Amino acid sequence: MSVRDEREPLAPRTTSLYDYALFRHGIEPDGRVPRRGYPLPEGSPPEPGRPRLTWKQVQAEVRAALTPLLADPDPVRAAEAVHRWADALDLPSRTLQAAAALLPSTDDEDAARRTARQLTRTGTTPAAVSVGLGLLTRLGEPEDVPCLKVLGMLSSFAPAAADALDPLDRQAAALLALAYRSRDDALTPLIDAAAGGDQEAVRTALIGLADQPRVMWLGRRIAEAADLHGLLRARPVDPELLALTGRLLHRMSRDVGRRAEILDYLPARSVYAHFVGYADRLPPTPELHELLLSIALDLHSGPAALLNWRPHRREALLGGLERLLAGPAWALAPDAPPGSEGTAPAVERRRADWIRRTTRKPFAGTSATDPHPRWEVVVVHDAADSNSVETRILVDGLPLLPALFAKGPGLPPESLVDGGELRAGPEPREVQLAEAECTEGCCGALYVTVRRDGDEVVWDGWRGAVGPPPPAYRFDAAAYDAEVDRAERDHSWCWPARRTARLIAAGLRERPELLRRWDLGLIWVGTDWGEPHTTVARFVFSPPGGAEDPHGQPLRLYFDWRLPDEDDVLPQERAAAALERIARSDPKGFAQLQRGSSELAASLGYSWGQAG
User: Among 203, 277, 475, 548, whose Cα sits 20 to 30 Å from the Cα of 284?
Assistant: First the structure.
């Protein structure tokens, strides 16, 4: 373990950081803590940089050092020893807190708890206080809540204090997390109202929240801070509150790059039951039809299906949504105004199209006792965002990927289904099922080995799963092959531009010579994220002879060919025309150059962002 230079004296400080936080709050004219809290006092030791040790090494070092120190029954003496040890380490405070929180149980938990309290109340450096906060994450009791709230007013301790508050006071933890993590002042009225205990003001602030990712990305913390469950009990048939509840539930079920928040929202099952039970009080608008259908998808094949439901309860909620949406009032909701097909705003037309394509998907029966796998292609639609397409894998009626990999959704069907990746051949092969939202190189990906074993198909050899290694899954080979066939033929989820993209990709797989003739490779064919009704084909050009730059890297150019959708042309016709154009003329002449070697582009006369 690296330590600071022994010749460097530790900065003497007699005022504890706990007392400093009380002082800063006490001199506030209006008593309000600023957003993101107070800074540490001047003269605090600088925060060390990223640790050179691996996380496992950090855990081992912290366990070896702290375990004997925490056994001392005298909390003052033990805290002084821990204080000296923590101050001598060259580790960030947040790393120390996280490692201390994961310490295994000690022989004398009461002694460790007393030492943790001594550290949080008398510690004078971030390192020492962080160790105390980490210990209280596991050992804290209700009497520690006031101290944790005070330390949470210091920005450096807000995340750790929220972690320690979570098992003790969810609302207090949520208020702290919102104040620290909110990206602007949009949540300030809610924070102030919830802190003041004014339920009517909380409702007003909730209803006023913009349904935008920059606000709603903290959906679980918003629901906890507002005591949404309590609000619903007090106002069970409030339509505006019900609609807001639906938006929060759907946002919490979006597992975008992290564990879905719905899995950590304690009253989730009760709130779902309340929402579905009173959903008939909502006005039948296209926006709410989209929301109800999205929640049905979450319950059917999203992370919400993994909640600890009582037998048949989830199926009952889905049945309630199915009956509601099949009623005459809601059946008309997705329709655009008569005669407005070409004039209705794009968002409205896109929403209506998504509802028509998705309306039956969440209500297709899947049995918890069915051992056969099922692949479902789901377009997660939010008119405020864009169309996100993922492949969901159901085993025993439950989604497999959210349970194994919390860093990103299943790959789109073009990557996982269309090319036969899931087919079980005579030789085992590794298949990527999901990738982290940031990229595999940053936070990993989930892989499984697919192999045929007699009359069974086996999934094993997992790589990249979060948590303990998953078991091997065995499927009847005939049923498995039938499901793969069905998924490859299923285009019901596609909108026209995406259908065009899939047909172009299939045509290029069948006729690889089309691109090879022009020294091009296919990177991807799909639809534009922000303009989902535009098909995009991405090519890479590698000059013959393998030219390289001075660093030995191959020279390449990357081109995008964009094909906006045309209402009066079928996807089959557009794809055939696209393939024919590639066959007769070089795509570098009509696609747009996006990136690559400037030297190579100049030598060939290509300009950035323009057709070659």
Answer: 203
Give the span between the Cα atoms of 349 and 565, in whole angstroms: 14
Cα-based distances in Å from 558 to 118, 412, 582: 60, 22, 16
Tell me which residue of 277, 260, 264 sits closest to 313, measured CA to CA.
277
CA distances from 561 to 408, 520, 534 (A): 27, 13, 10
List, in order, residues 6 or more apart from 319 with CB less than 8 Å away: none
Straight-line distance from the first to the last Cα atom of the chain, in angstroms, rounded to the nearest whole number = 57
Mean pLDDT per block of 10 residues along the chain (612 residues) reads: 36 79 90 87 82 86 94 95 92 93 91 97 96 97 97 95 96 95 87 92 93 86 97 96 96 83 97 98 94 95 95 96 93 56 66 87 70 68 62 90 89 86 92 88 91 94 91 93 89 88 93 95 89 92 78 85 87 95 94 90 79 56
Please tell me whether residue 134 adopts helix, strand or coil conformation: helix
DSSP string, 446-514: EEEEEEEETTEEEEEEEES-SSSPPPPEEEEHHHHHHHHHHHHH--TT--HHHHHHHHHHHHHHH-THH
Q: How far apart are CA 376 and CA 394, in angstroms?
A: 8
246 CB contacts (<8 Å, ≥6 apart)? 275, 279, 282, 288, 291, 292, 295
What is the pTM (predicted TM-score) of this model? 0.87
